[in-house]
Batch of 2 targets.
Target 1
Amino acid sequence: MSITLKDIAMKAGVSQMTVSRILNGKARGQVSPEVAARVQAIAGELKYRSNRIDRKLDSFLAGDASAAELPRITVLTPYPDFLERGGGAAGRLNAILPSVFQTAAEAGGMVEILPVTRENDPNRIEWPWLNRFGAGSRILALSPWFLVPLAELSRRGARIALIQGEEFWRNMTLRYAAEWAILTYRNRQGYEMLAEELLREGYSRIAVTVYDEYRNEPDYPSLTGVSNVLAGHGISYLHPVVQKEKAYDVAAFARAYRENPFDALTFIAPKGIEWNYRKTLQENLSLPDSVKIVFGNDNQDARRFSPPLPNMSYPLPEMAAQAVKLLLSDDFTPGERLFSGIFNDPVSPERRKKT
């Protein structure tokens, strides 16, 4: 029995029209990333095939010698309910899935989503789940978290496409560049761009929001990006505002300002904080209005404040589309491809002078 849009809609708790728009890549801005990711995940679990793929499958079953086996892209996730988390790595994966599904469908392929552990531990892979992969398998992963299973899958002959940030783990993954397609978004370069922009606007005491769990990693993007630029301008000031990733302390910003005042802040927005959007972010953080805040990533919170706050964005959907095309290509070409960030300042220069 074939899976229909109605089947997916019932399981996802949305309308058939919503499912159709999501699977055809036409729902951007109309549904939340969480809903889109849930629908895509269910479609993958149910092995849904679009009409175009169904026609290709029908041709194959009818004995058409020109019809090859349907190519499959396997997208790895750390654990079963990962996509429901939102924010962070889950948010990035949710952001690329529409592009993955659409690009694969346009090429006559299909997509499945596979969790590789039960407990979010890269050293406790559920290897029986991966035993069916070998030469000809096509694997897409977001982040070097998957380094252990990716190395094993590569040893078995699978094609690998890895999307990652420009950070410490890149030093390890580049060892596989001769075999894998590695697509790197330059988030450290993004923080350098933010710091240069803040310096141009006259800010020099730039504080940096960092997660305590990662701040001691070499090449931590926000710290190294901002410190590289400040040092290049002969400025020794560097002030990390330390946060726990899963226990964000909003009051810590006011304390950090009292202890070591800053005039600008690169900000990481956590998941689950209830902001008061009738106030500025500075008021939410108990900081003076004179402190300039810029987001280190493209986050919905940056757009909800009035005025909207500057942020960096990275072309993740385009990177995902290129990764899928590489995996499905007759001529798979490994190596690293670098993608620069884009500085977005929604406030015009004239208005900026008044704020």
Note: The two ends are 60 Å apart (CA to CA).
Target 2
Amino acid sequence: MTDIFAITEYKGRLLSFLIEDGKVADIDVYEDESFVGNIYVAVVTNIVEGIGAVFADISKDVTVYVDLGEFSKSPKKGELITVQIVKDSYMKKKAVATTILSVTTPYAVISTDRRVGVSKKIESEEKRNALKECFKRALGEKKYGGIIRTSAGKLSESELSDELNKGITELEGIIHQSGYSKAHSCIYKVESAVYNSVLDLKSKRDLKVVTDIKEVYDELIPLDNVSLYTDDNMSLLSFYNLNTLMERLLGKRAYLKSGGFLVIERTEALYAIDVNSGKDIRASEREDFILKVNLEAAVEVCRQLRLRNLTGMIIVDFISMKDRNHNEQLINCLKYELSKDRVPATYVDMTGLGLVEITRKKLKKSLQEALS
């Protein structure tokens, strides 16, 4: 089935919605200006050995942090270094950069880090080994490395080799250009975050892209199956019923088909999610019904983590179950749903009180933070 990728504005911010089987599975909020992926010739302005930090200016107004441990010898003030941005600035924290340079293609990441890897989502060990050997042959004597992406699994060896050679050539060109570029030069600029999102998704699935923003449509039109939504009588948000979804996501509750609901609250240290059955249950029906509600809640909890982009430590208080097998079913369901997340998310444990501990890596602001 074709998935829908809807791109529109909500409260003045650019958002995308990935819709699978008629239901929103993922939401992205795009920053006004992101430097992530861009490569600059930066000027070292300070070295703080106590915290292992190098600070360098990529422009007159923007200073980035680089880990001192990346340098074989400590750089000097005023020295030019080539860096790639890996994380945008956030509140009072400076943007983070690395001296390990990389370019991303639809099928691989080519990097100056010499390690060679293959996406773990390619489960066949034989296929993984074949892809890794193909990568090594393409690299030859070049001191590069990188990662073969999941989408490469559908290519023939010759097709993959051609794609890898394109990426290697591009990275070589960037490194060569950095040798004679002036301070503060941007020598590699990635496509917009929206363009890269679409490109990445199209390499993995059958995707239809629709947007009501002409500028976005013009940028994406070189890609297949992109359409401009122009209905003046109904907004794109209304067409896919996204307004209602957003209002709920910015609230504390999420509802289950069984009549139960989740209450999602943030504390200083973590997110707490409480599962409620929503109704009284007769004793004779209690255990089976609670298992049904908990399994439904496990699926919805993982969906809410993705949609709201909740990260850090998450504690889920499922409805207590006495049957050990039922608890095992719940944990297995939770692990499976977490494995679908493109952000690293891990089931940690179930405590003696029946509280489930989950961790999810922070890569971006939560939906609430991004829209505030």
Note: The first strand starts at residue 3 and ends at 10.
